[in-house]
């Protein structure tokens, strides 16, 4: 007859199914771990409750901070919208001042350019007057080869070259 010890040995936990093992009951490792850790989890319940309280308080504080931040943003937007006309006016004044400065600079450059043209005219005008006077003097003193008779009727429209060919003084038609 088998002994009690041999009967209890058959009820010992055995490994996973697979290779041949001595007879026994399949081991329930999850239940064994749960049984082993149950006292530890019981000790951690107050800590878990405290953590849930901390998380709830943090969520409440975060919502309060978001509400405060929304209010601050609304105030900032209202302040910015109130400053818009003044800022636009200031920007208009700055743009006008900048445009005036650019216009003054352009006018200054134009005056400098005009002064340079005046100076060149003053430098070159006597030379050109001398050239014109010399040419007119040549035309006036040049001997005429035309007969002394009265010329035929002149055409009504003169070309640009005809007054120089007629050798007249340019007075009258």
TrEMBL record:
Database matches in Gene3D superfamilies: 1.20.5.2950
Segments of skewed composition (Low complexity): 104-114, 142-163
Residues spanning the signal sequence: none
Biased composition (Basic and acidic residues): 84-103, 164-173
Highest rank taxon of the organism: Bacteria
Renumbered residue ranges of the record's region Disordered: 10-30, 83-114, 142-173
Protein name (record): Uncharacterized protein
Classification of source organism: Bacteria, Bacillati, Actinomycetota, Actinomycetes, Micrococcales
């Amino acid at each position: 007859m088998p002994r009690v010890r041999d009967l209890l040995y058959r009820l010992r936990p055995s490994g996973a199914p697979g290779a041949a093992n001595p007879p026994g009951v399949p081991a329930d490792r999850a239940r064994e771990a749960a049984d082993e850790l149950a006292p530890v989890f019981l000790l951690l319940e107050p800590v878990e409750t405290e953590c849930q309280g901390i998380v709830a308080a943090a969520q409440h504080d975060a919502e309060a901070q978001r509400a405060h931040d929304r209010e601050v943003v609304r105030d900032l937007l209202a302040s910015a919208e109130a400053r818009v006309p003044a800022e636009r006016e200031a920007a208009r004044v700055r743009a006008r001042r900048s445009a005036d400065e650019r216009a003054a600079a352009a006018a200054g450059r134009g005056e400098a350019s005009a002064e340079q043209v005046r100076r060149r005219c003053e430098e070159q005008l006597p030379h050109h007057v001398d050239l014109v006077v010399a040419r007119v003097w040549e035309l006036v003193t040049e001997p005429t080869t035309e007969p002394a008779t009265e010329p035929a009727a002149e055409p009504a429209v003169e070309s640009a070259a005809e007054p120089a060919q007629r050798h007249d003084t340019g007075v009258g038609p």
